[in-house]
Amino acid sequence: MKIIEENKLNQQINIINEFTQNKSIKEYFDSISSLQISSLQDISFEEDIAFFDEVSFILSVIASIINHPHLTNKAEDIIIRSELAGSIPADAFNQVVKEPILWREKDYEMVPENVHYYEYTDELKIYENIFIVMLIKLISTEMDKYLSFYVSKIPSFTNSKDTLLNTKDVEIALNKIDKIIKRISFIKDTFFFKEVSKAKVTFKYVQPTNILTKNRLYNLCFKFYKKFIKYEDQDTLINDLGIFYFNLLLKKCKEKNFILDESKNQSLEDLSFHYNDYDVNVKLNNSLHKIELLINDNNVIKHNLWFNLERKNNNYAFTKNDAYTDYVISAWNLNNLSNLTQELFNTVQCESNLIEHWLNLHFMETVGSKLVYSRYCPICKSKEIVEDNGLFNCSSCGSIYRFKNNKEEDRIWFIRLRG
């Protein structure tokens, strides 16, 4: 996710928290249609340009810091020959007095041959400079995301109707991004960046030290960081993305007339419903970063929806479990984990459409002869069908389906649709 999208997500979570406050489970679900959730994709071109200008300014500030960085004096206690030391402070001489090995006899008297000496050096690798390097890396990563985003918006003969921005906007954005990336490259080539980067120190939260709050240049960088970085912890970020999608899912359940099962123990993250002739459980499992959908119709059918912070889901990694389907969703994409290279949509879809599509996938029904489709797969027509406890599994295409009890006509419920 881009920083601006993270900011928008943070705003939406505040709205959701305010909406759920002091509501019972029933009140919450009954009124969820009125919850106004804005798309994280609704980031304007003007907002991006304004962000690029702020980044350019803060890089100028960082360049000034690199020219005159804050240093600390590092004192190291070393032992050198006495003639090289010149004068030494009293505490160093007291140490010499306590160590006979440093003395030797000269002209019938004992004199110090070697002495303790404090060597002072300027130290660059202080907390505040490590923060500056961390900020440089963060901005660099962000610009790579923006570059990928705007390159994907370049109109072509195959996607010109799908582009969200006109060519002029893309040109302006890419020009600013290229300039920023060049400046970052120059900064990364400085002695300051290379030296401070050697400090293998990471911190989860940035502490407002005296230098970060009192020094004008460092404070400008700190304020920039606090303004745009709403999530210092990636776990909190992905948890909030889960809350965002879970509430979108519940809004869709309400639209489709899911009926809250008040006989079950409910929580705001674990709700049970009746939907047509299905018993449905919807659970937000944020410890594993996924939504679990359980459908009970003679068999308990489980589906997983995993959360991803990246714009593309192509490289998403997960561990297979007992679910019938596994999908992964980001702010921009929905993919079937059984085939990540296949895009489900040719055009950009808003998050509301993505979550609705995922929900609809698991309640797909059609009229179909049980006599025919218990022998031939309704998807690929293969005869490689295995029936187990009422579930029909096509070993050829991987589709799973079952027949619904209906006196008037045979109906097929698709549990997993492949091909």
Descriptive terms for the model:
single chain; 419 residues; alpha+beta; five-stranded antiparallel sheet; 13 helices; elongated
Architecture overview:
The protein is an alpha+beta fold and 419 residues long. 40% of the residues lie in helices and 22% in strands. It is built from 13 helices and 16 strands. It has helices spanning 3-20, 25-30, 45-67, 82-85, 90-97, 127-152, 167-188, 191-196, 210-214, 216-228, 234-255, 351-361, 370-373, and strands spanning 72-81, 103-106, 109-112, 114-123, 259-260, 270-275, 278-285, 290-297, 299-307, 325-329, 334-336, 364-367, 385-388, 391-394, 400-404, 411-416. Strand 15 (400-404) and strand 16 (411-416) form a beta hairpin. It is elongated, with a radius of gyration of 31 Å. The model is unreliable at 159-163 (pLDDT under 50).
Structural class: alpha+beta
What is Rg? 31 Å
Percent of residues in helices comes to 40-55%
- Report low-confidence residues grouped into runs of 5 or more: 159-163
Count, helices: 13
Strand order of the largest sheet: 5-6-7-8-9-10-11
Q: Provide mean pLDDT, rounded.
A: 85
What's the overall geometry?
A: elongated
Measured distance between first and last alpha carbons:
30 Å
User: Could you spell the SSE succession in H and E letters?
Assistant: HHHEHHEEEHHHHHHEEEEEEEHEHEEEE
Total E-strand runs: 16
Strand content range: 15-25%
The major sheet is characterized as: 7 strands, mixed
